[in-house]
Design goal:
The protein has about 60 residues and is mainly α. It has two helices and two strands. It has a domain of about 30 residues. The chain has a two-stranded antiparallel ribbon. The radius of gyration is 29 Å and the shape is rod-shaped. This is Disease resistance protein. It comes from Trifolium medium.
Length: about 60
């Protein structure tokens, strides 16, 4: 456990191994591209929200006998 932690800093976000660092960098770029694509598509999505019913005006009525 400590050996794995000694090879990584900041809980595995910046590995000391060059190959691991390169792979991590590629993953970060891929995730950023995915996030950017999702955000750009999010502007095109329309969400339909059902509006509440219009308020009903009370009408006075005579007393019933």
């Amino acid at each position: 456990s400590q050996e794995v932690q000694s090879n990584h800093c900041l809980n595995g976000y910046c590995p000391k191994n060059c190959v691991s660092s390169y792979k991590l960098g590629k993953k970060v770029v891929e995730r950023l591209n995915e996030a950017t694509d999702m955000l750009s598509k999010a502007g095109k999505i329309q969400i339909a929200i059902e509006q509440p019913p219009k308020p009903v005006d009370e009408m006075p009525c005579g007393e019933t006998i």
